[in-house]
Amino acid sequence: MAIAMDQRGAPTQLFTTNRWVTGETWYAAADVCAMLDRFVIDLARPSWLVNRWITAMFRLFKPQMAMLLLARDAAIMSWRRRHRGKIHVFEDRRLEVTSTLEIDLDRQIGEINLALRRAA
Questions:
Q1: Contacts 24+ apart (CB under 8 A), 85-89
Q2: Which CA distances in Å does 87 have to 29, 75, 91?
Q3: Mean pLDDT, the chain, integer
Q4: Residues in CB range of 42: below 8 A, 6 or more apart
Q5: What's the pLDDT score for residue 104?
Q6: What is 28-85 written as a DSSP string?
Q7: CA distances (Å), 104 to each of 8, 10, 77, 97, in order?
Q8: d(Cα 104, Cα 63) in Å, to the nearest integer?
Q9: Residues linked to residue 4 through DSSP beta bridges, in sequence order
């Protein structure tokens, strides 16, 4: 999961990438979704404030992140079917970004506040 920022440093988009972009271990969307609640960066370095902000973004946009992870896996499977046998899908440099979603921080906070007022 990645967060795109504008020139002011405001988050504008969430996106996922193919495995080769980060060299990570690949986990299926269902497994990653199960891990989202436990995602915490609580390290002083390189920046404790940035680490806490990233953790908060994961909490704030958890539903959207889950949706993006499912879209990521669908994109990977679709790519695999269309390019069967030509190259391993996780190493295919033609597939970099696998899912994207525009986000609005103020709108998300507003929607959560509204839902909390309705639940009270």
A1: 89/18
A2: 22, 15, 7
A3: 94
A4: 51, 52, 55
A5: 96
A6: -HHHHHHHGGG-----STTTHHHHHHHHHHHHHTHHHHHHHHHHHHHHHHHHHHHTTT
A7: 14, 9, 29, 20
A8: 14
A9: 13
| DSSP-derived 3-state class of residue 3 | strand
Residue 3 in tokens: 């967060």
| Residue positions counted in the chain | 120
Question: CA–CA distance from 54 to each of 10, 39, 73, 87, 115 (Å)?
Answer: 12, 10, 23, 34, 23
Note the pLDDT tens digit of each residue in 3-61. 999 999 999 999 999 999 999 999 999 999 999 999 999 888 888 999 999 999 999 99
Does residue 46 have a cis peptide bond before it, meaning omega lies within 30 degrees of 0?
yes
Bridge partners (DSSP) of residue 13 are 4, 102
Pair of tokens at residue 89? 């899908």
